[in-house]
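Consortium newsletter contribution from the modelling node. Members have asked for a concrete example of what our holo predictions look like. Here is one, prepared for the S-adenosylmethionine complex that several groups have been discussing at recent meetings.
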Amino acid sequence: MVDTDAAADLREKLVAELLAQEKIVSEAVETAFRRVPRHQFMPADTELAAAYGYDNSVVTKRDDRDRALSSVSAAYIQAAMLEMAQLRHGMTVLEIGSGGLNAAYIAEIVGPEGRVVSIDIDPEIIDRAATALDATGYGSRVRALVADAEHGVPGEGPFDAIIVTVGAWDIAPAWLTQLRPEGVLVLPLVMNNVTRVIAFRRDGEHLVSTAAEVAGFVAMQGDGARADQIIELPGPAGGTVRLSFDSRAPSDLGQLDGVLTAGATESWSQVTVAKGVSFADLHLWFACYLDGFCRLSADSETDVATPKRWLPLAAVRGAGLAYLILRDAPGGAEFGARAYGRDGQLAADALNEQVQAWHRSERHTTPTFAYWPTGPDIPTDAAAMTKTHGVLTITWPTGS
Ligand SMILES: C[S@@+](CC[C@H](N)C(=O)[O-])C[C@H]1O[C@@H](n2cnc3c(N)ncnc32)[C@H](O)[C@@H]1O
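And here is the predicted structure:
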């Protein structure tokens, strides 16, 4: 039996934290977070404290390899995305990726004159969402239906805002067709293995970002799904090390066979980061500018640079691989590279050079993102990523 007083107290505490961290900045989103009983959209065995955590996401479904297929997103990113969407009373809103909770927040914000459509590719998730929406009194205010977002929602729209709550590698043409010309599209966009939640508005034929946030989301399924290219290498301690490439995998990865079982060298960038300071934008910088960039993961810590701290960011050059490491430095830590294989030093140099280039840029300033569904006006001075349906450009305040 849930203690409703305890839930109400936790809800107030959560709202206070979201306000303090400026994830909630409008009265409409604040009221929604005060009213919607968040815990009633969670699996029954979820602790109240977890349901009302600031940055807790709660997985609701996994695949047979234990990867999350669906989750209730963390409160901070739900609040931030609702603010980014600039929702107002009476709007028509599409939520892509359902669960019920976020749709209830949207219903609170757009009010009875508004319209909320919430879709999910998974019938089980839509059943769960519909049941929770009915139980909390939002059932009649949200249309929850099964659909693959890649194809939009036939018979619905146009939408004033589309909020995508699942990791998208590209912007489906159907979303732009169903978005009003002045509408806002908010989505977690996967850019060469790095995700940012971005709010876009139209500017003529292309989209320009108005805000961005760091967050992770479960991956898109269905016709818009995009599989990473993954290679597995035997690690130095006998475990498996995985390299995961997005769209720019080098063609000759076979040269890396056995590369991790020979010795390693380390080199240092002389770039430091102060203790407690985020360097999330370094990941995005690598995604933009580091050739052969990939994510690295290991079954066991003994296969990576213990006792040094390591980061899951790596570069491949020919028959060489290097990944990012940290060592203590006065007031914080210095970035460096651990290199393996015949061309390992080339990979390490490339990694350290991009750490230095990021450092010379305004390293804590968020770049501007633009998406170009069609042609000729794409700027040539920005980092560009070619997607299936358009080109994404990323412009850093001072460029590289
Ligand atoms: C993070 S969960 C959604 C969270 C929910 N909006 C909330 O706030 O609690 C992402 C959902 O996207 C769904 N999904 C994945 N691919 C999809 C697709 N192509 N079309 C529609 N839904 C999709 C998954 O089934 C999953 O339930």
